[in-house]
Amino acid sequence: MPDFLQSRTLAVAGAALPVFNGKPVLVPARLSGTETLGELFCYTLELKTIDMLAFSPSITANVDLDKLIGTEVTVLVQIEGIGIFVPGMPGNTGTGNIGAGTREITGLVTSARFVREEGRAMVYELTLRPWLWLATKNQDCRLFQDMDVMEITDAVLSAYMFPVEKWLVGNYPRRDIQRQNWESDFGFVCRLWQEWGIYFWFEHGNGHHRLILCDSIGAHRPHGEAYRAIQYKAPGAKRIDQEHIHELSVENHLTTGRATSVDYDYTTPRADLTSRDEDPRDTSHAGQEHYGWGDYAQPQAGVSGLSGEHNDAQREADYLVRVRMDALRCAGLRVKGTGNMRGLVTGQTFTLEHHPQHAANREYLVVSSALTIEEVAQASGVGQHYRCTTEFEIQPTSEMFRPAQTLTKPRTSGPEYAIVTGPADQEIWTDAYGRVKVRFLWDRSAARDHTSSCWVRVSSPWQGNQFGATHLPRIGQEVLVEHIHGDPDLPVVTGRVVNAFNQPAWALPDNQALSGFRSRGLKCGQSNHFVQDDTSGEIQTQLSSDYGTSQLSLGFVRRILGNKGRQDARGKGFDLRTDLWGVVRAAMGLLITTEARNGAQSHAKDMGETVQRLTQARDIHVSLTRLAQKHDAQQADADQSEVTNAIKAQNDAIRGGTPTSDDPHPEMSTPHVVVASPAGIETTTAGSTHIASDENLALTTGGHVGIAARKSLYASVAEAFSLFVHKLGIKLVAASGKVRIEAQGDNVEIVAKKVLELMSTTDWINVTAKHGIRLNGGGTELEISPKGILGFTDGQFLVHADDHATDAPQSKPADFPSFPSGKVNQAFPFSL
Predict the structure, then answer these.
(1) Which residues are CB-contacts of 652 (< 8 A; sequence separation ≥ 6)?
(2) Which residues are in the Putative type VI secretion system Rhs element associated Vgr domain (predicted)?
(3) Does domain 416-496 have CATH number 3.40.50.450?
(4) What's this model's pTM, rounded to 2 decimal places?
(5) CA gap 781, 763 in Å, rounded
(6) pLDDT in tens, 618-635
(7) Which residue has the higher pLDDT, 151 or 98?
(8) Could you give the angle at which helices 608-630 and 640-655 cross, rounded to 10 degrees?
(9) Using CA atoms, how far apart are residues 27 and 563, in angstroms rounded to an integer?
(10) pLDDT by residue (tens digit) across 643-692?
(11) Model confidence over 472-484: pLDDT tens digits?
């Protein structure tokens, strides 16, 4: 450091200050400025050119001020100390006074100007500010993740190569995200400091100044010997040979006595995160409340996500509310004064003595000090005169000091653009809350991966407990991000927008009539869509999946192909189709009908015509069954009666019971499949058709039943086979091949009310029986058996013959077919 003029009250040094022949060109004439806890100091230093250069105005009037800007300049203020000069000490150094020495004030030159010409001297003025003032000259927007206030401070101030000391006792929790929202570096960190009750000042020494960060009243150090105790002497009192306070005003203020804060954490939505603190001063009307929204809920949105440890929100809330309470309360008792103390320093403590108000004589913290020192002459010898005035504001050290929370978090003014991010090998990156990572377009430092931001919630037009609408933004999509309450630390994705790489689901403007949703398969390129086509006269709703080209189209059916959109028309109505398998399953019943309900009138299961036809069919079944039973084709109350009873039960179940308020549409009380049509029902297949029923199969028609088989007709019946024809008889015709009727276990009965004809038009009629044959007509019987031929008649036995003869006995054996013996195994249905 250059030599100072020690005989002067003020001296100045700086590497960039001009010199001439090894002597400084400028000497200090006046110094004024203010230092306050939590604020940037500012000093104005007035300099004059020295007399020895008065002969050269070209030098004194043309100091290169640009060379001074941004450099450090130190002003030394001579401190006399307490007491009188000690005889025998060399010169006029005053070193015999207690606490004598020098006070340094160092700052960066932020402005310099030529002020005036004063006699033979030129006057210049320098403005000195702390290095932290540099942090007010920028503006930035960036994110800090999983960092506490001090880690953020280190990161921000690392750009400024100046010393910082931390006199801190608090342990500060990390935050998921803290955003510097278009703020200067100073505005950002100072806002955080105020929130957490941290404040600052500067200490000067060795030609430099350093930033001090503090959060406790106990961290402040007392002044040196000269100012450890300062006396109050009213104007007009007996003069004392030491610096003292001559004006002092003790000020009491009405302050807010309660602080309350509330916050919300969506990972614990029912938690009450309200915190309250009260510490009113002993005055009237001190119970007013400051109620504000907090900033302590941390919804596990940081790097560790939901797997990380949840913060202790209540403890942090209580601390932050206490900080605000302290900041409100500490302004309630302040002392302001004036004196001639050149060495009174902001951030240090002293004890006041000799004040007439006894309660005022206590230890104080210097909250603010304004110093003005003005020398009378340029150079001085012994007994140099000067004027020094110090105005100050102090606070009792018994009260916690906290900075006023003057800096509020800048609010966002509207939506912001961002790009969804994630790992390089993923298309979607999300967590259990459907949150995503984004990179804001303004973020210059963020990586384009899953570290770009904290987890950000995604709003949905519909969200409930395990229900709602889910459309997760995918990596690379451009989204709109808004902020809750405008808080830049509470982002939420509210929408997605089109850009060159994220085009509309269907090409526009050709498909402007289409609206809906179209998704994209992960790593496969296929898609699903739900689309509504509002083309005039051709409206359609379509649900489709590229997998198997499976889709349901309703209305004017038109093919909608990928991004191309509307293609060829395919029909009207509805089309349910797939290239794979199709299943229709209804646990309570299924109605398939072409009975018209124009305009969707009536209720869905309305099937009056169907039930009516089924009832008519049952009536036909019952009447013909009774005829068959009347004609002994079936047993009464059995056989086909079992089928008619089943039909009735089935019809009753299809019709349903009486409508009630709980069940206004009672059709299908059991899960039947009903297929109905007023025109016709047709089935066809290139393969086989199989109709299976565990119970009965009833076929009823009001007209004919036709069965046509290009090959054969087979019927296998486990029990009885009964055919009854009421009017026009039965025909059994084989155009070729034989007709064979067998009763393999019992008799065959052929009964006719009238003539029974057996006829062979080209060959014999063979009647064969193993035991014999009886022919009985009108009481006359002819018996043919192994015993012979016997005839029985009450009438005439007349034989017409051309010849008549008998011969020796001779039998004619006959061949009889063999029948299977034993029980035949049958397959019976079973139910699972």
Answers:
(1) none
(2) 523-628
(3) no
(4) 0.80
(5) 26
(6) 999 889 988 988 888 888
(7) 151
(8) 160
(9) 80
(10) 999 999 999 999 999 999 999 999 999 999 999 999 999 999 999 999 99
(11) 999 999 999 999 9
Structural tokens at position 558: 């038109």
Q: Which two tokens stand for residue 440?
A: 């804001």
Please give the single-letter amino acid code of residue 558: R
Cite the beta strand spans of 718-811 per DSSP E.
Answer: 773-777, 780-785, 788-792
Q: Is the peptide bond before 829 cis (omega within 30 degrees of 0)?
A: no
Question: For 29-33, which contacts have Cβ atoms below 8 Å and span 24 or more sequence positions?
Answer: 29/123, 29/374, 29/375, 29/378, 30/372, 30/373, 30/374, 30/375, 31/75, 31/77, 31/105, 31/371, 31/372, 31/373, 31/374, 32/370, 32/371, 32/372, 32/373, 33/105, 33/128, 33/370, 33/371
Q: Are 295 and 275 in contact (CB under 8 A)?
A: no
At 445, list the tokens.
């430092």
Check if the beta carbon of residue 33 is closer than 8 Å to that of residue 44: yes
Please give, one letter per residue, the 3-state secondary structure of 165-176: EEECCCCCCCEE
Token pair recorded at residue 745: 């276990």
Report the distance separating Cα 245 and Cα 355, nearest Å. 10
| The 3-state secondary structure of 591-631, one letter per residue | EEECCCCHHHCCCCCCCHHHHHHHHHHHHHHHHHHHHHHHC
C-alpha 724/C-alpha 632 separation (Å) is 9
Sign of CA dihedral 221, 397, 359, 337: positive
Cα separation of 817 and 809, whole Å? 26
Beta strands in 398-547 (DSSP E): 416-421, 437-440, 457-458, 463-464, 467-468, 478-483, 491-496, 514-520, 527-533, 540-545
Query: In whole angstroms, how far apart are CA 821 and each of 142, 356, 744, 818, 824?
Result: 97, 138, 9, 9, 9
In the chain, the amino acid numbered 404 is: A
pLDDT at 92 > cutoff 70: no
Phi and psi based region of residue 600 (left: phi greater than 0; alpha: psi -120 to 50; beta: remaining): left
